[in-house]
Specification:
With about 475 residues, the protein is an alpha+beta fold. It has three domains: about 120 residues; about 110 residues; about 200 residues, Aminoglycoside phosphotransferase (APH), C-terminal lobe (Aminoglycoside 3'-phosphotransferase, Chain: A, domain 2, Alpha-Beta Complex), CATH 3.90.1200.10. About 40% of the residues lie in helices and about 25% in strands. It is built from 14 helices and 16 strands. The strands form four sheets. It has a five-stranded antiparallel β-sheet. Strands 6-7-8-11-10 form a five-stranded antiparallel β-sheet. A four-stranded mixed β-sheet has the order 9-15-14-12. Helix 10 packs antiparallel against helix 13.
Length: about 475
Amino acid sequence: MNAKPSPTDPTLAQVEIARDPELMREIFQRHLPPLGEQTYRVRECRISRAHYLKATRRILRYTLRLEESATGRERIELLTGVMYAERGRARREWQELQRPGREIPYSLLTFEPFFFIPELEMLVQVFPYDHQLPSLPILMAGPPPTLEPLVLALFGEGDWRTEAWDVEPVRYRNGARMTLRLRVLVRNGTTGQLEERCFYAKVYREEEDGERTYEVAQKLWEKSEAGDEGFSVGRPVAYLSDLRCLVQEEVPGSSLYDVLLQEKEATPVARRAARALAALHLDENVPRPRRQRPSKEVFDRRLKRIGATLRRTCHYLEPEVQEIVDTVIARSGAETPTGPTHGDLHLRHIFLHGGRPALIDLDAFAEADPLLDVALILSDLAALPLDSPLPRARVRKVSQAFIEEYFAHVPESWRDGFPTRYARAVLKRAAKISRIQNQIPGWPDKVEALIQEAKSSLAGQDLR
């Protein structure tokens, strides 16, 4: 919430109220409409996320702790409030949601799924209801008829029947997508045998987003099953266009992040992941449903915004930040490689099981600059000693092993472009820390350490 309100924003007074947890607790106490006769007291309101989108709307996510008036039992409710810069739009959207004919399953609801707060011009949605993700409550309520037979078929021949279908929310991007973990317990009607498996279901706002991800996952799965030495993925079950939902089996094992924290000697694991990443980047047979190649002007503009954030929050670092920005811009004019690129690769997106690396979260997969994947992984490693008890020397050893192994398997010319990609990724991480500084103990030291890491990269020094 660092961006300044534009003249077309809701009034500053409304925004400030929406950002005040205690005031919002009182407002929700007045406006949160129960469906039944039970009444509730709002004991606590926390703002779990606040986002400002291009001077068009503000999105605030609230976590409410409620107490049943009759029993004293407590429950948690998740609410999302949207305030639009355009006057009257929130009310119009709320009125549209009240129109007859909208099929809304109420089995999970204690409160009205959508309501309007007039004094704030705010449309509020009660989880799991999201008017841009209409299939979300269907998946939360139980096995949908289009999905259940596909899941049961994975258990093999026999009369398999669903005994339990537990749904756990994992990650929610309001109005964009939602990830759910499904724990499915089934019983063989003939033998009585019980089996349990876990799946991930991702609900999308745009149908083509899910279709693209399914295409990539399906191809990577087929290559893995054929003995390919690169990454595997969770087996794709289906993309269901009626639900805008992609379903995959859970990837077993531990994330690379967890492995690094748990194992004292993690360089073999790092090298294995680096070889798989190099193989992916060079694989011409992996589909790239879209192309992500921002122009140099766009690239430079984004980097300048990162620098501006750091200069605003860390004035004392302004000369060093400006030097890094200027150097990266000056060196980034050369032709860059292209190839299949994950696009959002982090240590938690690589899993290892039985020595085999696997990828998750393929939504950003594209024909792009593969060095950006490497830079993101290495920036994660740079931050590890700042956020964990891992010794810096151990992390440096893992970083060097990863980078050596990767560049041993890709064209030598790619190495020249890495320092600027890495410096930019580290600078971006430092800017993120500075934006949420109130949530991060010792944030100035962490930002300074990352700034020095970016400078070292541009100076040609070893990764630290």
